[in-house]
Specification:
The chain is an alpha+beta fold. It is 33% helix and 19% strand. A hairpin with a 2-residue loop joins strand 2 and strand 3. 29% of the residues are buried. The protein binds flavin mononucleotide (FMN). The site of flavin mononucleotide (FMN) has 10 residues, from helix 2.
């Protein structure tokens, strides 16, 4: 190997080492800020399903991951955020997946008070058709607000269906597949909460993938 090639190699290695060091320093300087921003965004997306309830502490720190198999809607892990006030359980926000949307799975956040009333429902992710199924989004229509304050007793379980299926809830104009899937997921989440409420609030927060 000639001296020139060796020199070039050393120069390239030095440049690569400097670049790697710069990336590492930048990562360490911005890591905390990125994590804080991510947490703030998560808190902002969770709060609307809580109907303005006064609570304490960052919601995201009470995160509980429920791995499958479980009786919540959707095949993957479900995520539960526990919300407290004066140290007492106030509500739970449960992120579940309705597997049977028109265009695929629909991620839903179901807020439920400790007493079992819906505090709010928000659609986290979906691929439903604009102008048809996307009316489930709170920014597109009022459809999702009809669940506010409802519970397993209001209406009775048989009423937890679309009007056209014999229940009490509205469908969307020209689209019943999407609302049927979301409604079914909300009903299953309420049933799960009713059966597992004490255990949900007693479980320690999950540490992984925060
Ligand atoms: C291109 C296309 C997109 C559609 N997107 C949706 C949708 O996002 N959500 C939905 O519920 N139905 C959607 N539909 C309509 C369904 O096929 C179905 O007709 C509708 O949900 C009404 O159901 P119903 O016949 O029981 O009233 C779509 C239909 C077409 C042709």
């Amino acid at each position: 190997m000639s001296l020139g090639i060796a020199k070039s190699g050393l120069t390239l290695a030095a440049i690569a080492a400097i670049c790697a060091a710069l990336v590492a320093v930048t990562y360490h300087l911005t890591r905390d800020r990125i994590a804080a921003n991510q947490q703030a965004m998560l808190e902002q997306s969770l709060a609307p399903a809580l109907a303005g309830l006064e609570f304490e502490g960052p919601i995201s720190e009470s995160r509980l991951v429920i791995p499958p198999p479980h009786d919540l809607p959707g095949p993957g892990p479900a995520i539960v955020y526990r919300v407290f006030a004066s140290g007492k359980p106030l509500a739970a926000l449960i992120a579940v997946t309705a597997p049977n949307g028109y265009a695929g799975p629909i991620r839903i956040l179901v807020g439920i008070s400790y007493e079992g009333n819906v505090t709010g429902v928000r659609i986290l992710e979906h691929r439903e058709t604009p102008g048809l199924g996307d009316g489930i989004e709170s920014t597109r229509s009022d459809w999702v607000y009809q669940f506010d304050g409802r519970s397993l007793g209001d209406p009775a379980l048989a009423g937890w269906a679309l009007k056209r299926d014999g229940g009490v809830f509205d469908q969307l104009s020209g689209a019943s597949v999407t609302p049927r899937a979301v409604l079914q997921a909300i009903r299953e989440t309420l049933l799960y909460f009713d059966a597992h409420r004490e255990a949900l609030f007693a479980a320690p927060a999950s540490e992984d993938d925060k």
